[in-house]
Structures are given as structure tokens and as C-alpha cells.
Design brief:
about 140 residues; mainly alpha; 5 helices
């Protein structure tokens, strides 16, 4: 089996987004704990729901890296995990809004971007590769 251009692009984009989210999540954790201070405003005073969202976002980014690896390796769990990862990213945006984050163009873009990646995961050129990987019989044990 070979990777189509669409699979390569999805894997690169998803991996990049996951790495970026991981780096920003680590930075936010450092800011919230007071380990690093770059703003005049103290981020330690953020509400518990917003602090929790940072941790959830960090966990989602790690999950995203794991499923991106599976997706790149053309594993069926990588496709399913990628789908779940995109849904989790959309849900995290929704939770942020519920926790008091302002509706901004960034939120709209993030949701539209994740929705586009979900649509790309269902393209026949992508879906067929992972359905074929699922239906291939295991080689006999020697």
C-alpha cells in the first residue's frame, strides 16, 4: 500500500497542528504554574475551568501525535484516531466557549479547519486505503 498525496498532506497537517498545540500547551502550563512569566497579567489567577482546558488541550495534542503516527503508518486505528482527534479539537473549542472564551475568528477558523480535515478523511482516496488495510488477512504463523 502506498500513501496518496491526500494522506501525506493530512498526516503533515495533523502532525504540525499536534506539535504546535503541544508546544503552546506546555508554554501555557508553565505560565499558569508561574514557572515562566512574560505577561504583566498573572495567569495563575485563571479560573479552574480554563486551567483544566489547558490540560485537556495538552492531552489532546499528545493523542494527536500518537494517532498521526498510526495514520502515517496506514493503520486503521490511525484513521479512526485521526477522526476522533479532529472531533476532540472541535469539542475543545466548544468547551472553551462555555468556559468563557470569546468567540473570535480563531475559533471559527479552528472549527472550519477541523471540519475540513474530517471531510478529507472520508475522501475515497483516503478511506479506501484504510478499509483495504482492515480487510487484508493476517499472514499465517510459522
Amino acid at each position: 500500500m502506498s500513501r496518496s498525496l491526500t494522506i501525506i498532506l493530512i498526516a503533515i497537517i495533523q502532525g504540525f497542528v499536534s506539535l504546535l498545540a503541544l508546544a503552546s500547551g506546555i508554554f501555557l502550563v508553565l505560565l499558569i504554574t508561574g514557572t515562566v512569566q512574560v505577561f504583566s497579567q498573572d495567569l495563575q489567577s485563571l479560573s479552574l475551568p480554563l486551567k483544566s482546558l489547558v490540560v485537556v488541550g495538552l492531552a489532546i495534542s499528545i493523542f494527536g501525535l500518537v494517532v498521526t503516527y498510526g495514520f502515517w503508518q496506514l493503520k486503521p486505528w490511525g484513521w479512526m484516531g485521526s477522526l476522533i482527534f479532529q472531533v476532540m479539537c472541535i469539542a475543545n473549542n466548544g468547551l472553551g466557549l462555555l468556559a468563557g472564551q470569546e468567540i473570535s475568528p480563531k475559533v471559527y477558523f479552528s472549527i472550519a479547519f477541523c471540519t475540513t480535515l474530517i471531510a478529507a478523511l472520508f475522501l475515497p482516496s483516503v478511506r479506501d486505503v484504510f478499509e483495504t488495510a482492515t480487510s487484508e488477512p493476517e499472514p499465517p504463523a510459522v
